[in-house]
Design goal:
Number of strands: 20
Number of helices: 18
CATH topology of the largest domain: TIM Barrel
CATH architecture of the largest domain: Alpha-Beta Barrel
Structural class: alpha/beta
Shape: globular
Strand content: 5-15%
Strand order of the largest sheet: 9-10-11-13-15-17
Radius of gyration: 23 Å
Largest sheet: 6 strands, parallel
Helix content: 40-55%
CATH class of the largest domain: Alpha Beta
Length: about 475
């Protein structure tokens, strides 16, 4: 099937990134801040410096992990109709922006901290929007014990959304409790292992460093069958070399290291290659999604993921990088949204504002609407004897028109995309005129959309679990 895809690296350049990643893992190694994980790696072929807590991973150990990890698996959902096949067979799967600090109030337009009520609204809106395929807890809940926010976010995701949930975890105790909550919803630990209804991001700390408690959590999740997403978040010039090649190599090295850790803990456990790496904004030190180099970095990382047969989350989506609506210039927006053409499977970002610092229900509607039009560039096309249609050419003959031929009437809606003019009105660059209508749509959906309900007894048990955890904290 023919499909547009932006590649950045030649095959020879891929080979160089691969070879230098293996060299980095074997000669520089990765910092592993867990004695248990360091011993596990050493017992399975790594060389370890226990004083410095460095694991040196030999090439054969890395290649064995690449071979052991499944290339195809599913992200399961509470509602089986929302299960996702990886790699994505057609369009990439979109999700929301994740774990932002502030919510943009839908009525006042002011930034404020998010409550459980706000979180529930984001989850319900995500459940309703056709463009969103799985849910990444959008905001960090502020009206719960601070150390428990990710437990509440996972639980409230299950209540208010019937899709697969991508959580996060940095502590082994939280991992144990997340598994307990998810097992309750799934119908037991064995059912959860058969149908993991959530995945979790366990991210390296660039460059080449892994937090000990997070690694302990990763091992627990891998043994429970929960897909692990390793999201490398390099800042070129700060936590990776300033060169594009050096940053791509760092992303690749960190993902391979995470893959080795998962496969050493549980051979065959599902693992997702991921990156949210950009150049550093040299004037502020912040992540810079609107830098043109973001497109090249993402394309290179996506190619390396495909090289190893890894499902990946590389691209980003969403127009609200500078605020509500579409406040960025054409070139900035192209560099950001163009990452979709890299051929990744999972894409975050819907509803995010201000460089992933805040989010908005109205922006979720705007980003989803733009996606409905952008998908025109991502369709697949059959190239075959039938679609080349020489028989039709013979029928029409020299110098005549194909317009009235039955072949045209039969196929033009499959081959040609027709923009929705009303939706196109939401795409006026450097404009926020679509915001009032987007707010109305979001409010209407929240009034009318009904989420597949969890069993009332399960909800009661889940709330009791959270109360028990809170007492322990």
């Amino acid at each position: 099937m023919a499909k547009i895809r932006f590649d950045f690296l030649s095959r020879e350049e891929e080979d160089i990134i691969h070879a230098k990643s293996l060299e980095m893992l074997e000669s520089i190694g990765v910092l592993v801040r867990s004695d248990r994980v360091l011993r596990m790696l050493e017992e399975n072929g790594a060389n370890a410096d226990h004083k410095k807590k460095i694991a040196y991973l030999p090439e054969d150990m890395v290649l064995e992990a690449v071979a052991a990890a499944p290339k195809n698996f599913h992200l399961r959902a509470r509602n089986k109709e929302n299960d996702l096949e990886l790699p994505a067979p057609d369009f990439p799967y979109l999700t929301t922006d994740g774990l932002v600090v502030h919510v943009r109030d839908i009525d006042t337009g002011e930034n404020r901290e998010a409550t459980r009520k706000d979180f529930a609204q984001f989850a319900r809106l995500a459940d309703a929007l056709d463009s969103i395929s799985f849910f990444w807890p959008t905001v960090t809940i502020s009206d719960v014990p601070p150390d428990m926010h990710n437990l509440y976010e996972l639980w409230d995701s299950f209540i208010n959304c019937s899709m697969h949930v991508q959580g996060d975890c940095i502590r082994v105790e939280d991992a144990r409790r997340q598994l307990e909550i998810a097992s309750l919803v799934a119908g037991g630990a064995e059912e959860l292992k058969k149908r993991p209804i959530f995945s979790t991001a366990v991210d390296p700390i660039s460059p080449l460093s892994f937090d000990g408690d997070a690694l302990e959590a990763q091992i627990m999740f891998a043994k429970a069958g929960i897909p692990i997403l390793c999201q490398s978040m390099c800042l070129a010039g700060m936590s990776s070399p300033v060169t594009i090649a050096g940053t791509i190599a760092m992303i690749n090295t960190e993902n391979l290291a995470s893959l080795v850790i998962s496969q050493t803990a549980e051979r065959g456990s599902p693992h997702i290659y991921a990156s949210s790496s950009t150049p550093a904004d040299m004037s502020t030190g912040n992540i810079n999604y609107l830098a043109p180099e973001f497109l090249m970095i993402s394309a290179g990382a996506a190619q390396m993921a495909r090289r190893y047969g890894r499902p990946c989350m590389i691209s980003n989506w969403g127009a609200g990088m500078k605020g509500l609506g579409i406040p960025s210039s054409y070139s900035e927006l192209f560099g950001y949204t163009g990452t979709i053409l890299n051929g990744g499977d999972l894409v975050p970002g819907i509803g995010g504002l201000d460089g992933a610092m805040s989010c908005s229900l109205a922006q979720m509607v705007i980003d989803s609407t733009i996606w409905d039009n952008f998908k025109a560039f991502l369709r697949t096309f059959s190239i075959s004897d039938k679609t080349i249609a020489l028989d039709v050419v013979r029928d029409v003959g020299h110098g005549n028109s194909f317009l009235t031929h039955p072949h045209t009437a039969k196929n033009f809606r499959k081959e040609l995309f027709f923009f929705d003019r009303e939706k196109l009105a939401m795409e006026s660059t450097l404009s926020d005129r679509m915001v009032p209508k987007a707010r109305e749509i979001a409010k209407k959906i929240l009034r009318e959309h009904v989420v597949d309900p969890l069993d009332k007894q399960v909800i009661e048990q889940g709330e009791e679990l959270l109360k028990k955890y809170a007492r322990n904290y």
